[in-house]
Design goal:
The mean pLDDT is 94. Helices cover 36% and strands 20% of the residues. Strand 3, helix 4 and strand 4 form a beta-alpha-beta unit. By secondary structure, it is of the alpha/beta class. A five-stranded parallel beta sheet has the order 2-1-3-4-5, sandwiched between helices. The longest helix has 14 residues.
Length: 143
């Protein structure tokens, strides 16, 4: 039986490929989505993709996942470090969440070391670049 997963990309991730390539690499968001969709299909996972630069839209997407998706993969970008509201949305929907970061947030500026979501996420993957999304898909498929 196939699983349904919502992949959420937060603010500024639409600029991947051109934004700070020394930190985030040259892979675009479209490249990541294409690779993840193909990989998910091979793992019998249906992937829905969403990106927003707006906190409320991300919260709405998390709420809408309840009863619709088996898991959420989220890279909340800078909202990781600031949004209690996104954390509360994750806590409220009872859908397992896999938190992904392209860079190793613990090796960066101190304000990036804390994630409001980690305590309510099933898993946290950081520092693997785009491969982190693939790891999350594999973990979900293996359950």
């Amino acid at each position: 039986m196939s699983k349904s997963v919502l992949l959420i990309h937060g603010p500024n991730l639409n600029l991947l490929g051109t934004r700070e390539p020394e930190v985030y690499g040259k892979t675009t968001l479209k490249d990541i989505e294409t690779d993840c969709t193909a990989h998910a299909k091979g793992r019998d996972v249906e992937l829905a993709v969403f990106q927003s630069n707006h906190e409320g839209e991300i919260i709405d997407a998390i709420h809408d996942a309840r009863g619709k998706h088996d898991a959420i993969i989220i890279n909340a970008g800078a909202y990781t470090h600031t949004s209690v509201a996104i954390r509360d949305a994750i806590s409220g929907v009872e859908v397992p969440v896999y938190e992904v970061h392209l860079s190793n947030i613990h090796a960066r500026e101190e304000f990036r070391h804390h994630s409001h979501m980690s305590a309510v996420a099933k898993a946290v993957i950081c520092g693997l670049g785009p491969q982190g999304y693939i790891a999350a898909i594999d973990a979900i498929a293996a359950e």
